[in-house]
Amino acid sequence: MFQSLFQTFTDDANGAMGPQRLEALRRELARRGLDGFLIPRADEHQNEYTPPCAERLAWLTGFTGSAGMAVVLRDVAALFVDGRYTLQAPAQVDGQAFAIFNSGETSPDTWLEQHVKTGWRIACDPWLHTPAQLARHERAVKAAGGVVVHAEANPLDAIWTDRPAPPLGPVSLHPARFAGESAEAKIARIQAALGKADALVLSDPHAVAWAFNIRGADVAHTPIPLCFALVPAKGKPTLYVDPRKLSDAVRHALDFLKIASPEGLVRDIEALGAAKKLVRFDAATVPARLVQALESAGGTPEVSADPTAMMKARKNKAELRGAAAAHLRDGAAMAEFLAWFADEAPRGALTEIEAAKALETFRRATKKLKDISFPSISGMGPNGAIVHYRVTEATNAPIRRGLFLIDSGAQYEDGTTDVTRTIAVGKPTAEMRDRFTRVLKGHIGVATSVFPKGVSGAQLDGFARRPLWDAGLDFDHGTGHGVGSYLSVHEGPQRISKLGGVALEPGMILSNEPGFYKTGAFGIRIENLIAVEPRVIKGAEREMLGFETLTLAPIDLALIEPKLLTRAELDWLNAYHARVRKALAPLVTPATRKWLAGATKAIKAG
């Protein structure tokens, strides 16, 4: 009945091949006179979603998470993953070949310092590490008596004989009605922000896509072209992109740019170095290789924040209108799915994969879906307790009595969505209702917060946790991440978390997603997207801000314990559901409209 065009459910990495591939890599290292190699989960841009040709860590180890690093030495190898993947990694990776560590407890650098021997030569690919990352690794290896060698060619690529070719997704133009600002105006703003720098290297493809009002199709779920750009303080920028990605029409429309092949980037940076120029690089994404190219030629690098990051984060009026339209459309698709699920789940024939396929199908029915914004997290019971669970044919669980968590999103040309709902299948337990209501209280605490301009996400993070803290509970992920405008569903620098040090500003879009996870039992998360907007308070002495909730989808009433909610929290919930009902009822089928009326009815205090 349902199908998925944008999400696959096979686990392409093969952990069983890890020992064989590990030995082949060691032979290649020995042939080159090397004693070890660092393999980050990264491409040349530090992208979250990478093309198949850059999935070196997955090919070697079998681990398919979005963050991690392996270190291969002569006689021992290790894989380091963060807390999101401590359950996933052992299930995918041969533990006899790779020791697996939580990087929050044992960092790769600590491990290197303990295992590298005096005189050893440890290789790295400088295209896959930022300068700061590389400096940390070099300090650790040096402390152990070894030296880091910058490989001219990646040793792993030499043994990956069936490595996929780099992608050639076509570059498209992002229409002015969605962008809200011309590329020429954005370039002028970027040039004005360069300070004393003679040029800026854009190494983040999201920044390039935003600045030049283009989109691409090189990686899954995020419409970016893999490319670099060089923006001089004066004059035309240069876009370094494979020319095969550009149609004649797109090339003509980009007449405000110079177009060059990617191979010309290092040469042009070396020319800037020879001219003793000061060049600014993005500390978060620039390959160390590019900074080395400038320094070796005599130039001065400034490795700092990319000024486009904050510009991109502050959505303009057109982008905010697009976000509202995208969320209205997406809300209707979510309502159709939730109504369908409410009817089908009690029959006992559904699986996690069928649910994920169904939701994608309802979104495709809008005729506006470009892609999903990330692989849907469709988790029943214990699988829902795995924060970044990805259902595969091997893990696909039947939907039975308990809690079902569905975290999903969509890419529309006018906006990017991300929404999580937790649904009771059958009658929930008292514990489930208590935990869900505490998560809801935290969600409302963020949604209704009012704060002075200059407040950061770190200062708001506790609002989401307080109801859980009161019961001795917590969750181990951030409360919210930034979201792009038909770009990455995970966009910085804004976020609501303990580490969110960037001040929130009007126009920023973030997620609001507190949760609770009981390992082996169930997971709970309630996620809406919110936009920062001004708040007018009579008599206020400071400029104040608050949030507008963008997401429109019912919150499961069966999981709410009204006695735990304050009057103000009940009022927020009832007003939110009234808004959802009014907005979505005209857009859904009669059957879904009937279900929606019950799913959004007002509840009274307990």
Task: Report on the architecture of this protein.
The chain has about 600 residues and is an alpha+beta fold. It folds into 3 domains: about 15-160, Creatinase/prolidase N-terminal domain (Creatine Amidinohydrolase, Chain A, domain 1), CATH 3.40.350.10; about 170-315, Creatine Amidinohydrolase, Chain A, domain 1, CATH 3.40.350.10; about 315-440 and about 515-530 and about 540-600, Creatinase/methionine aminopeptidase superfamily (Creatine Amidinohydrolase). It contains 19 helices and 28 strands. The strands form 8 sheets. A 6-stranded mixed β-sheet has the order 4-3-2-1-5-6, sandwiched between helices. Helix 11 runs parallel beside helix 12 and helix 14 (about 315-345) crosses helix 15. The radius of gyration is 25 Å and the shape is globular.
Can you summarize this structure?
The protein is an alpha+beta fold and 606 residues long. Helix 11 packs parallel to helix 12.
Assign an overall shape. globular
Low-confidence stretches: none
For the termini, the CA-CA separation is 41 Å
Q: Which sequence of strands runs across the widest sheet?
A: 4-3-2-1-5-6
Question: Helix share of residues?
Answer: 25-40%
Mean pLDDT across residues: 96
Task: Please name the CATH topology of the largest domain.
Answer: Creatine Amidinohydrolase
Strand content: 15-25%
**Secondary structure category:** alpha+beta
Strand segment count? 28
**Rg over CA atoms:** 25 Å
- Put simply, the count of helices is 19
CATH class of the largest domain: Alpha Beta
Number of domains: 3
